[in-house]
Amino acid sequence: MAGAGSRVFISHLAGVAVFDPNADQVGRVRDVVVSLRIGGRPPRVLGLVVEVVGRRRIFLPMTRITSLESGQVLTTGVINMRRFEQRPSETLVLAELLDRRVVRTRTQEEVTVLDVAMVQTRVREWEISKVFVQVGRPSRLRKAKGETLTLDWHDVTGFSLAEEDQGAANLLATFDQLRPADLANVMHHLSAKRRAEVAAALDDERLADVLEELPEDDQVEIIGKLKDERAADVLEAMDPDDAADLLSELPGEEAERLLQLMEPDEAAPVRRLLTYEENTAGGLMTTEPIVLEPDATVAEALALVRIADNKPALAAQVFVCRAPSETPTGKYLGTVHFQRLLREPPYTLVGSLVDDDLDPLPPDTPLSLITSYLATYNMVAAPVVDESDHLLGAVTVDDVLDHLLPDDWRDAALHTPDDDGTYGGAHVDGTYGGRDHERQATGGR
């Protein structure tokens, strides 16, 4: 553990790996839990919120931490894997203090919180000691618009007040490198008010990617708090199948209003998807697979496969069709798999390489038959065609999994212990710290 007086800025802990005494990684830090105190006393740091396997968030008391040095957190061997539940008396530093507008007591001017630092006291407790602030409002990219200062905790006021418009610039800067699924997990654990602030601060493309990873309830909540014009822009940035899934959860009039605001060519595939039953090939498919005409070359096919925005399941093959190449296409001819493309000269025409042995799926194919098709033929995507052999789209394995798992799978804890009764080497004793005095030391947790 860092010695007494050692200062740690909390934004630097975001995403830091947590290890047990055997050097096995337990998880990563997602936030810090503090307890605000009366009388201007600095908040006491209770522990860390750590994300473990399956995106479960657990509470790690400060009494269980042996080191906060060298860009990692070391713990004792006993960790409670019970899901973290925030209590009314607790505050999350990254989620709730960053971007807050507070008052500098000496000048009575409003400042914005960019970061806070904690320090270990002589009695080996941790408390918030410093507040890093900016005079003037920071931009979304955290570029300075005014003077930055590091103040003592007692030099600012306003942390206990409800925040009307907190913003989210510095919270987003802290988690800027997260994948969409991980940022979605962060947002899911925020309050509804804070979640709306973060959504408002994200650009359309980033918000679209995050919405695709959120549970349906969160999606509906967020899209409902956006202005209609922006909601339509975000829906346009989403994959058509995900946009259709979200719109299907909205009241009919609201969904139609948003469709009317979307660009016609963006709304058209979404409208088509909404006409199919949910658990069928038509309802599950994406309308944007990689499609080439038969006179395209292997070099052209590989160039499309390399586009970073293509999901791995869609980039595993190209579908060869007669013109037009936008869905619904001309006559579907067959599939060319990525491995075959790698084995052929770049000037080879894809029309000479098509695999037409497997029948495509009609749009009314039920989910059970889709899963059997993918499993039987070891496919990660299957073409969907209409009765005239026009390619309508493709069903990918990730979309099938979304519908096979329970409705609340994004919320569910998927963490299971190893054969030796440990979680990645961290022993579970079924208690909060295992001893009553440690339970008291962490505020009763």
TrEMBL record:
PROSITE patterns: CBS
Keywords: CBS domain
Superkingdom in the source lineage: Bacteria
SUPFAM superfamilies membership: CBS-domain pair, MgtE N-terminal domain-like, PRC-barrel domain
Disordered as annotated region, ranges: 415-445
InterPro entries, alphabetized: CBS_dom, CBS_dom_sf, Mg_transptr_MgtE_intracell_dom, MgtE_N_sf, MgtE_transporter, PRC_barrel-like_sf, SH3_actinomycetes
Gene Ontology CC annotations of this record: membrane
MF GO annotations: magnesium ion transmembrane transporter activity
Keyword Translocase in annotation: no
Residue ranges occupied by any CBS domain in the UniProt entry: 285-353, 354-412
Biased composition (Basic and acidic residues): 434-445
PANTHER family noted in UniProt: MAGNESIUM TRANSPORTER MGTE
Protein name in the entry: Magnesium transporter
Origin organism lineage: Bacteria, Bacillati, Actinomycetota, Actinomycetes, Kitasatosporales
